[in-house]
Design a protein that fits this description.
By secondary structure, this protein is an alpha+beta fold. 16% of the residues lie in helices and 35% in strands.
Length: 677
């Protein structure tokens, strides 16, 4: 029997066992259990509503990375079938109109192959719903960057990137481009192409000499909406991006007026995305996201022509400050999206004509994506709750739910932490919440060591669900710690004011929110104040750096954390974050930059033992911050510290070995300083 068939049978057997009976929780969770989990992305229901295609990704220890594969679920029977096995990291599944085939992107590499499609470049592929006939659709040298299948399967549209040299120094840049690096002037821009799936002829549709970050083709195939930037640099999204409508018949590009998301926005540095056409091809919805400010949903009505586009801002539901995964509800003039509300993530909808809204997935759920099933308004969500993380759940229009998968049946045997919402009074007298995890057998009769874990962003939040992650959730509670993950000032899902109150007050109101939460746990008798640690990554690392000088914590783990805001503005790849929170440039707000920087709080007498993590090639929080913190603590303040640099890693650790090392270092560090081990 083929290995692939054995894997499928075992997967189905485990799933069926988990569905049919309750499993006794006997397993004590250890950090290595994190790597046994499957995670979800890219779910898409078939047009006939019979199937849901999805991508799951799992850790591949042998190849030191995560690997993505394409699966298909039969919604009624809950049978699942794995479609791809080669290490092609498949993404973006799209259905044929008859629901018999899937198109997707993958990059396959065969030994000795130097030509597409097996040279490792990203191409469009096609496979039958039964897993047969894996076929390359494109064979583009250097690969493609994005694609969309036409609704009638007559063609595919795709983008490919090319080098573009600009400026007054073209000749010198061209002469030395292989030997030198330049600050600007040599960029990647995009071309938009169409491949006819009957004649297999290709046609270049547009070459705007800009980078096309995303695009969507209207259902009637007459227009294409795209988000473009001057180049492929992330900073170009912050104020230099636009929404353009390309008319296929005439070849004209119309730039939508940006008054609502630039001049009249709270910040000029918003990121555009989330493009989605209405089913009648007359409207296009999109979103704009900000660091420090709530997201906005906009709809451009093109029924009177692109030059006369009428653009409106949709009112978000009260308390919801995010907007992800925009989709039009089939047959309705309403936009659905994932929004956050008090550590839950639900699917909301806003009616375009009157701005009214409703919740499609109520309750204590955390949803990371969804797809509509058929034309009745039912949907399948990538969902997490208190006892599982990432499964597909069917929500009917009548409000009934059905969990369709159990992708991690091993979790049913794990002794899960006691997870609850913990509330306290924080800065400015406002109520603050966080996720509190206690050991599975904790009875409240003893005081526990505490680990405070701080989420990144800060325009993000900690979810109210089971989460075994490398940043502390679950694994520390499993070994006897109390774990608090505060949704401090500036977190999403607690209303616009709570979010924007952090502007101009970093290393201030957020720190107060965190420490008042710690004090509340001490007052309740849950936490031993002599055994407390703090940890975080990205903005959580920055806040960890802010907290080490108060000597309330015995130990800290700072991951990719900012030390100096001026350095951060000069070096990071998305500086709009700093400009928003500092409310200007350094020469405009010098005091704000210094007050927000943990560097200036470092002083003799610090007793917190600090473990520092950072990726060697981190573009978001450059390694200079972590090296600087290590130097200050070790050379000048004589503080116990260790610096761990992950070779070739960026802002996120993507290798199995790196994530395992980070986890082992953190557990050893806190166990020594908080447990005395």
């Amino acid at each position: 029997m083929r290995k692939s068939h054995i894997i499928i049978i075992l997967s189905l057997l485990l799933a069926s066992i988990a569905f049919s009976q309750a499993v006794e929780r006997t397993h004590d969770i250890v950090p290595e259990d994190y790597f046994t989990q499957a995670f979800l992305s890219d779910c898409e229901a078939s047009p006939d509503g019979k199937y849901t295609a999805y991508v799951d990704y799992r850790w591949d220890k042998e190849n030191d990375r995560r690997s993505r594969d394409l699966w298909v679920l039969e919604n009624k029977t809950k049978d699942i079938l794995r479609l791809t096995f080669d290490p092609g990291n498949e993404t973006n599944p799209q259905w044929s109109p008859d629901s018999k085939r899937l198109y997707f992107t993958g990059h396959y590499k065969r030994e000795g192959a130097t030509e597409p499609p097996y040279d490792g470049k990203t191409q469009v592929w096609r496979i039958q719903v039964d897993g047969k006939e894996l076929t390359p659709v494109t064979r583009i040298p250097d690969g493609i960057s994005g694609f969309q299948l036409a609704d009638d399967e007559s063609s595919i549209y795709y983008t490919r990137d090319k080098e573009h040299i600009t400026g007054d120094w073209k000749e010198l840049r061209s002469e030395y481009k292989n030997d030198l690096k330049f600050g600007h002037g040599i960029n990647q821009v995009s071309e938009l192409w169409k491949l006819d799936l009957t004649t297999w002829r290709v046609e270049k549709l547009s070459a705007p000499e800009r980078y096309i970050g995303s695009f969507v083709v209207s259902p009637d195939q007459k227009q294409i909406a795209m988000v473009t930037t001057p180049d492929d640099k992330l900073i170009s999204n912050e104020g230099w991006s636009d929404v353009r409508i390309f008319d296929i018949a005439s070849g004209t590009l119309t730039i939508l007026p940006d008054k609502l998301w630039r001049a009249e926005a709270p910040s000029p540095y918003g990121w555009l995305g989330g493009l989605a056409w209405s089913t009648d091809s007359k409207k296009v919805a999109f979103s704009v996201d900000f660091d420090g400010f709530p997201a906005e949903i906009l709809v451009a009505n093109l029924s009177k022509g692109n030059e006369n586009a009428m653009i409106q801002r949709l009112p978000r539901p009260d308390g919801v400050s995010t907007a992800g995964g925009l989709r039009w509800i089939p047959g309705r003039d309403a936009v659905a999206f994932v929004g956050e509300m008090k550590a839950r993530k639900r699917v909301y909808t806003i009616h375009v004509h009157d701005g009214t809204n409703e919740v499609l997935t109520p309750g204590d759920v955390v949803i990371d994506g969804f797809t509509f099933v058929g034309g009745k308004g039912d949907l399948v969500a990538m969902q997490s709750e208190l006892t599982y993380y990432h499964d597909l759940v069917l929500w009917t229009k009548k409000g009934k739910t059905d969990r369709l998968t159990r992708l991690n049946p091993q979790v049913d045997t794990w002794k899960l932490p006691q997870i609850s919402i913990f509330k306290w009074v924080g800065a400015e007298g406002d109520t603050v919440e966080g996720i509190l995890e206690l050991p599975p057998d904790y009875d409240g009769k003893s005081k526990l060591p505490l680990l405070v874990t701080l989420h990144g962003g800060p325009t993000a939040s900690e979810p109210y669900c089971f989460l075994l992650w490398i940043y502390g959730r679950t694994s520390f509670a499993a070994k006897g710690y109390a774990m608090l993950a505060p949704n401090y000032r500036g977190s999403t899902g607690y209303g616009d004011k709570f979010l924007t109150d952090l502007i101009g007050h970093e290393n201030d109101r957020d720190v107060t929110d965190i420490m008042t939460g710690v004090d509340a746990l001490i007052e309740k008798g849950i936490v031993d104040p002599e055994r407390m640690g703090v940890a975080g990554w990205s903005n959580g690392g920055f806040l960890t750096n802010c907290l080490i000088s108060n000597n309330r914590f015995k130990a800290a783990s700072s991951g990719a954390g900012v030390l100096d805001m001026t350095v951060q503005l000069l070096e990071e790849d998305t500086p709009g974050h700093v400009l928003n929170y500092m409310e200007g440039l350094p020469w405009e707000q010098p005091k704000e930059y210094q007050d927000a920087s943990p560097l200036f709080d470092l002083k003799p007498g610090i007793k917190t033992a600090v473990l520092i993590h950072v990726g060697e090639n981190d573009p978001r929080v450059p390694v200079s911050h972590s090296k600087g913190l290590h130097r200050m603590l070790r050379q000048y303040l004589d503080v116990p510290c260790e610096l761990v640099i992950y070779p070739s890693a960026g802002h996120n650790l993507t290798k199995y070995t790196h994530r395992l090392a980070k986890t082992k270092w953190d557990h050893a560090w806190f166990d020594r300083y908080l447990m005395g081990e």
